[in-house]
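Appendix B.2, paired examples.
Example (i):
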Amino acid sequence: MFEVNGEYLLYHGSSVGIFQISRLANEILDLRQEYDLNTVEQRLKQKYPISEIKEALAGLKEAGIFEQDKNLKQFKKYGDPERVIQLIVSQDCNLRCDYCFADKGAYGRERTLMDETMAKASVDFLFSWLQQVERDVGEIAFFGGEPLMNMPVIEVVIAYAKEMSSRLGRTVKFGLTTNGTIINGDIVDLIKKNKIATMVSIDGSAQRHNLHRRFPSGKGSYHVVRRNSRKLIDAGIYPWARATFSQKNLEVDKIILHLATLGFTNVVCSVAQPSARHDGCSEKLDAPWTSAQVMRYKDSYKRYMSKIVQRYNGNELPINNLLLRFLKSIHFHTKQYLFCGAGQNLVAITPDGEIYPCARFAGVQKYRLGNISSGFRQFVPSKESIITRKSCSRCWARHLCGGGCPADNVFRRSTKTKEMYCSLVKFHIEQAIWLYNKLMQTNKEKFLQYLNQTKSRGDRLTRTKGGDNYDAHKKDK
């Protein structure tokens, strides 16, 4: 339950719904946490007329507020109908970011690039997978390391995937996550021609970005990334910015405000994540934040929320991916039983053809799901689902959170850190509920239009403003 500007709001976890309730209903729900309904009614008789109490109880019952989540024991798969492969075409990188979960691009292995034979075999695997599960849409997300270090193979994959798409009558989309340092005119043309949904890693201003994202020489990469991002935007390509927070870089509002000034209209935000190898750097990333750092982050996030409301009528701020996910789930009453589709409708393929639930797991043999030549076993994150973990099954936020990132749940070893991030997710959800209510009050028509426009995107926000897909049933313009 939340109080916003004197109004009482109730978030109902089982229905993923928000209700505006009276002061009396708020008191009923407070008492209901300790007493049965008959006792609640008796305790309130001295303060409210019995007719008002019964009317409030009837309204809460009709809304299903007292009902338990009947479907919680039933395991549900992630609902995105698409099938996605994160194609790690480069197990190498030209940067040496000190917070990189992929061990500076090498995934704890020898630095190497995927060859054409393995790349084509990976495309064959995707279309075979689509046929097997009777799906019509697949996506190839070029990943690294830095994938643009292997441009010849990317070009081969695109051409071959289009050929297969036309032959089999299925749709294929392309995505790219890049550090933005080696984008040139030819790459811009390739991205635009093939409508590749592009995400550029950039952590805010030069001072913030260069804290972590540096070349092997130690030189910061900000000015190169900013210049190359401008090339994309000037060409009519609207990339997503991927901003990574760390204990040294926590001011969300300042980071996103700066990215907006650069022309980014969509932002993916995440906290620096420990690698699977648990090296010295990873241990630092796994350390819990101090109480002062948590407070600094929360204050910054609240300022970001307020600025979204202030600027919603004019020059809107980008709404980050996690916030958008929560807003859509609240509005469309979408329950999340898992955080993502890792190992179910999304897999990562390494240069040697090994299959993992996602790139975060790549190179960790314990989580190897198979090989593209032999297929893969589905990854069922039994320890990560909101059904099997007791703390999640009882949590009010379970159907918006989905249990958290499976890789984080596995690779974060500090219990205090896990508890801290769990607390931050609940904080993010509380802020999303506040923002949803505020925008529905102040700018309902425009906000609903925005939500409906983004409804079909799904939770993997890898699209660009000008992004589309290659469809066998359409001709390229």
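Example (ii):
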Amino acid sequence: MNAHAKTVSLVLGSGGARGYAHIGAIEELLAQGFEIRSVAGASMGALVGGIYAAGQLDAYRDWARGLQKFDVLRLLDWTFRGGLIKGDRIIGRLRELIGDVAIENLPIPYTAVAVDIIAQREVWFTRGPLFDAIRASIAIPTVFRPHHYEGRVLVDGGLLNPVPITPTLRDLTDCTIAVDLNAAPDDERGTLPDANTDPGLLETFARSLDAVQSTLTRYRLAAQPPDLVVPIPRTACAFYEFHRAPELIEIGRERTRAALAQWRGRIKSDGGPELS
């Protein structure tokens, strides 16, 4: 860990609507003087990271903060072929908001992680249209229709790598900071459902997805630990609650501020100079 760390490789994890917390995390890092030199993301992390790299995070934040439940429902284009949602409407709206961008023309290196469901392996987008990369990376199996790109059938990157540290290992930055959207809650006891009732279909799917994602995330972080992890509790919201942007952005900001303070405290207790 570098006590004078200021340049950052930023890793943004998967977690559905909890990905709004990435906005607050990015804003807090910038407010504290960190320079984000590269971004790697899976699923919602790929979406927010790509929009940040394109220089349009403020526009996306303002739009997301205004979404209500009915607005979210209007963005869904239902289908029953390959998934419940086509995904064309939401990508079209984001393209209107952000504009068409090629990844290779972004001002900082960017990697979106998807999964080739036929070959059963990760696919890293580092070139090509930004919104093809985002569309592939957010394609939660059974929820979104898979994205077909250059002869591949692609789904959500979080299926295999919910916190993609590996693409940042080549970076010449001071530190790697990962935002984990699948962290354990502060008080697990207060989040348990009533064991005597059956959860609904959507709730069952959401909790199953969270269980898989949190387990994979722990393995990935143990195998390739970043310098700092910003933990966002998986109980902050369900993956489908996209109408809760304001509070989730604030959670991201608060959790990042707390994680940085703890990081500085550890450096100081170890006898190193404080982060400036």
